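Re: that chain you flagged

S.,

Sorry for the slow reply, it's been a week of failed gels. I finally had a moment to sit down with the sequence you sent. For the record, here it is as I used it:
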Amino acid sequence: MNANAALVRHARDTRLYLFLGLANWFIFLNHIPNNMVSWITSRSFGFSGASDVFVFITGYLAALAYAPILLERGTIVGATRVLRRAWHLYAAFIVLFAIYAVSIGDVATRYAAPDILYQFNIASLLEEPVRTVTHGLLLQSKALNLDLLQLAVVLMASFPAVLWLMLRAPNTMLAISAALYIAARQFEWTLSTFPDGSWSFNPFCWQLLFVLGAWCALGGASLLVRRFKGRVWASFGLAFLVFALAMTMAGRFPSLGETLPGWLHDAFIPDDKANLPPYRILHFVIVALFATRLVPKNWRGLVSPILRPLIVCGEQSLPVFCVGVFLSLAGYFVLVTGSGTLAQQIMVSLSGIVIMTLAANYVSWSKRQDRPQERQQDRPSLAAMDGRPSLRAG
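Prediction finished late last night. Pasting the structure tokens below so you have them in one place:
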């Protein structure tokens, strides 16, 4: 694979932000307990879901962002840029964890509802606050809905070594990632949480999807598209998607699941999301291949104002994700204290999506305001260095 050619080809693929924005919306809807609107999300129609899209595209975009720095400015500079991004993710997680825990604790106290503490996995904060905060700083939190950001911190922190080898031997790096995935599932490797339990997204398994994203960004996507372009593969893909839909429905409706043979039921139900089973990866890859066919890179709809909210939410993925976590919590309290009807669920879901979009647009607007100011500040100093008069003089 030619990494340089792949980076040029995928430098600005709007589809990445479109699907990442859609994943953020779906994650928000899925995070609201007992929300019927979440039935429209991708997890209701197959093995993979929004989390898979989020992790894969994060790895894809990380390769696009930092591979040119490693190639042009060296490994040390590139590694420091990646680690800076990991630090930003870690800081976001800590701030989110602190405010999230305090908010739930306040609601539980104000409304005399201690069960909420256990439902959102923060009861230990009241029982052992110092140890809980300490373990939270060590990424051993079990707080509900923060697990995906926790996973992103670890994956990004380990990415300098992954990217270094990926640029030199991409297939070898992918093979090492697959070997780690197999070993983790075979020997049940995972990371622990406090006070008990393990990560909701086993990083030793989910790293494969992240690395696969980086591998695709550096040329692997073209290989996959060429390999699975024939009718035979397309037919297999469609058949597997139908099978995945049937298994997903059987998992949601016990009466339907009881009609399946025992060996088939036990193989796919319940879904082992924490350890990313192979059939989930296969499902995601097939969906991704069909999605790229249905939505080509030069599709005119990508510049349509109708899809702009999704794209901007993908471009500002981190703040949108953080806002979505709080909105899902607020939406849950609205439904619990209100009527909880389908109409209210729809209202809460749409309101949350609108707020997430407004937040994304504000962050995007704010970043654009900083760029002209930076250029204006640079002009006088550059003019002074080469002896030219300042453009702003007189």
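What I noticed first: Residues 375-394 have pLDDT under 50 and may be disordered.

Talk soon,
D.
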